[in-house]
Amino acid sequence: MITIQDLKKQYKDAVVLDVASLEIPKAECFGLVGNNGAGKTTLFRIILDLVRATSGRVLLDETDVSKSEDWKRRVGAYLDEHMLLSYLTADEYFETLRKIYNLSEEDLEEHLNKFEELFNDEIRGKKKYLRDLSKGNTKKVGIAAAMMGNPEVVLLDEPFENLDPSSQVRLKKLILQEKERSQITFLISSHDLNHVTDLCDRIVLLEKGKVIKDLHDKSSMVEELNTYFGT
Ligand SMILES: Nc1ncnc2c1ncn2[C@@H]1O[C@H](COP(=O)(O)OP(=O)(O)OP(=O)(O)O)[C@@H](O)[C@H]1O
């Protein structure tokens, strides 16, 4: 369970995030939407303790994420390419993570096999550094890395952006399978309302840093969001 309490982030006098209370239960697929600058990435960064909140706190179960490092083993995330080691090839990067996560070669193979369709023969066995991959293929590496090591929580910022249409469908299938297979709590931010509503049990809409809708009803969330975004 992720608990957000009185969370505020301010840059000089601009309040960019102001979330009084939010609870994300275990195994929920939590979608986060909002216009550019609404605060989605800031919220994810604070949850991951990459940015310190001005006030308030984020708890992972009982642990304040800004006060301990232990929870990091339980959380996977891909926000952007800065999270990768760009001077490695994809194979070298996965091998490095395998050692960090203490996985066997078989475990790694089993994990990466789930991504075979998504990788579309463009990632593994290539002599390209991550910095030279296309944007979409870079994202695929980041997502596979975020889901490595049996995390309890996975945060993905704009996972569908830059993916070709078939890859978007394959990624959606993969996340749905993982949701079924494990008890992963997914936090997914997206501008793609169709994908995020297909995937998520709940969608929170941020506007200027505040939660203005918290939608749980699958049948009405698409319509509510289309009305808000004028789509
Ligand atoms: N380091 C910073 N200094 C000043 N303002 C910042 C900083 N980082 C983020 N902001 C501001 O915080 C606000 C929220 O940004 P954030 O990136 O969280 O939005 P977002 O919802 O992820 O947007 P997008 O959909 O465009 O990715 C924006 O106004 C942004 O300019």
TrEMBL record:
Keywords: ATP-binding, Nucleotide-binding, Transport. InterPro entries: AAA+_ATPase (IPR003593), ABC_transporter-like_ATP-bd (IPR003439), ABC_Transporter_VariousFunc (IPR051782), P-loop_NTPase (IPR027417). It comes from the Bacteria. GO terms for molecular function: ATP binding; ATP hydrolysis activity. Residues 2-230 form the ABC transporter domain. The keyword Nucleotide-binding applies. This is ABC-2 type transport system ATP-binding protein.
